[in-house]
Amino acid sequence: MAKILFLAQFAPTNGKKVIPLSSEEKFYAETYHLPICDILEKYGYDYVTSSDVKELIQNYAQYDLVWSVYNRLGFRNCEVFVQSICEYYNLPYIGATPNVRALVEDKSMSKQLAEHLQIPTAKWVVASSKYPLSAVAPFNGPYFVKPRFGSASIGIDESCLCETWQHTIEKANSFLQNDIEVIVEEYINGIYYGVPILNNTEIPLIAVPHFQTSDKIGNIITNSQKRFTEGGMKRFICQNEGLNKILKYYSNMYFMQMQPCDYARIDYIVEKDTGIPYFLEVNTLMNLGQKGGFVASFLESGFNSYDEIIRYIIDLGLSKVKK
Fold it and tell me: What is the dihedral of CA 53, 14, 7, 35, to 10 degrees?
């Protein structure tokens, strides 16, 4: 039987529990990381769990498959670290390859692929400490300012929505002062939609899209709302068959171009006035927890339980292990 290493922030390490330090961390542990650990145990997999990537670095030869759900490891460009280590040791892993992960973690480059595929995309510019925003607005507002790299919603709140270019520059500078590069998007007044995808031996499995609303200004959804530690966010399964068909078409086209990748969620904003879906970003390490949108959509798309979804993903990884 193949031996699996499961890496997660709150995965038990050397037999000891990792204690969450905040309500958001507790949510992640109890609805995401620990349930996956329970599934590995419940179904008799040969596995080790750890919250320390040194377990991989020091003991890589003991494992046949790695599954890391770490989004951040505390250093720049950490998103591709575990997968790169696996590639170095020719060790199979679950997820996206480092080059694909790098593409999607860069919100600017991922938008360029969407444009190339002729998927509607709002205007945008990027800025860094070396190359700050120009004094003259490149397009009309309102504007939305957020970190350019990374898939989490940390740092996103109502102050990210800026009516004027001067306000946009000030907000961007607040990120740049902390060495966080930014992307400034043309704000689309609409609703956020997510389209979860699982790879398959033939065509990808694309779940029914879900959408989310917020009581924040501009329908902005914060990191705390996504972790259910702050109220005001609601999630629904989309029942609009016409819109679902368009979103699935775009998502299938995009997913086929971002291979190799085992699973992903592609996000859009559907403009209220026109009904046009604009590509927003893509995530290859979204929340796979019991209360996440990814799971909610697939439970409406042929899967009968959370366990079944997680075991499907594990099987994608095990299929890469040489017999």
Answer: -160
